[in-house]
Design a protein that fits this description.
332 residues, Heat Shock Protein 90, 2 domains, five-stranded mixed β-sheet, two-stranded antiparallel sheet, 7 strands
Length: 332
């Protein structure tokens, strides 16, 4: 809370008593006592802040309860003397002996100031609790951002490793496609290095990146890829975390049967009513065995948990012939 808002909040709380008491004093023809009552009231209020800003900080550092009680007792004596002076100044409560007046206002000061001291303790603990919660939340957010950055950074070398392997094969075969593959990789790396650093990127750019990935993979294959990519819905105004769908595309080119015209790979992306649907189904290439494993799907799953907690549905299904991914995200 900003400092000026906090000051206004304090003023508002302390104004509750005068707003209640002063009209009652007018109704009972005691308006002449208002100046004295307001002076005494302000003096008692000051004890709250003396306790809050001077006594309690010392106790927090030293944690000595006896010293805290001694400081409060000294304050009660000081405020009793101040109130006796104010009474004499306004000419009120002058009956009785000096001893009687001292004891009377000592106990009055004890009653009111103990209440205010307890309020200062409660206020201090409440403020400290909210500050600690805010710091805890900031640390959690920072940890989440760090984890997301780490997860996203894993995608880049993972993709680069796979793509360089493909370009190596082209170069080894002395293919005329090698130069084109290097150029396409350069364009994709530009996106990964400069545009994917933002928390959100336009969905249209992510789709363009997927198309470039497909074109790059096509270069290393002799036969045309049997892949059907369908993009539908309201995609122009949508933003998503960068590189979210890339592991799915990578898995297709690592594990899918790509040249079966009767059973093509199907990728569908549809945006409607702030929902983004992604569906991917590919026939499994049993001849390919990936012994290196991968980080792709576990990476995506963790990113989704961090970015869209309670706002996504993610399911994978594998049988003897096909592998299917279904993902639905509720966009903000």
């Amino acid at each position: 809370m900003k400092k000026w808002k906090l000051v206004l909040w304090h003023i508002g709380v302390w104004c509750i008593a005068p707003v209640t008491v002063i009209p009652a004093m007018y109704r009972f023809n005691a308006s002449s006592a208002i100046p004295y009552w307001m002076t005494a009231y302000l003096i008692y209020i000051s004890s709250f802040y003396v306790s809050l800003y001077f006594v309690l900080p010392g106790w927090v550092k030293r944690r000595k309860t006896l010293l805290l009680l001694l400081n409060w007792f000294i304050l009660i004596i000081i405020y009793t003397a101040i109130l006796l002076f104010v009474n004499n100044l306004f000419g009120v409560y002058q009956r009785g002996s000096v001893q009687f007046k001292v004891l009377k206002f000592f106990f009055i000061s004890c009653t009111y100031m103990c209440i205010l001291f307890l309020l200062s303790i409660a206020y201090r603990f409440a403020i400290d609790w909210f500050q600690n919660e805010r710091i805890k939340q900031q640390l959690e957010n920072q940890n989440l951002k760090s984890e997301l950055s780490f997860l996203k950074s894993q995608i880049n070398p993972h993709f680069l490793f796979n793509t360089l392997n493909n370009i190596y094969i082209l170069a080894y075969q002395q293919s005329v496609k090698t130069a084109d593959a290097v150029m396409k990789l350069s364009e994709m790396m530009r996106y990964m290095l400069y545009e994917s650093n933002d928390e959100q990127v336009p969905l249209t750019k992510e789709i363009a990146y997927i198309r470039q990935m497909i074109n790059l993979q096509q270069l290393r294959l002799k036969e045309p890829i049997s892949l059907y990519l369908s993009i539908n819905g309201e995609i122009t105004d949508q933003n998503i975390p960068p590189l979210l769908f890339i592991p799915f595309v990578e898995n297709i080119f690592k594990h899918a049967q790509l040249n079966d015209q009767n059973d093509p790979v199907v990728m569908q992306l549809k945006a409607e009513h702030k929902l983004l649907h992604f569906h991917c189904r590919n026939p499994i290439n049993h001849a390919v065995k990936d012994t290196t494993g991968g980080i792709g799907l576990s990476n995506v799953k963790r990113r989704l948990e961090l970015l869209y907690p309670g706002k996504h549905f993610f399911r994978t299904e594998k049988n003897e012939t096909h592998y299917t991914v279904d993902l639905t995200i509720q966009l903000s």
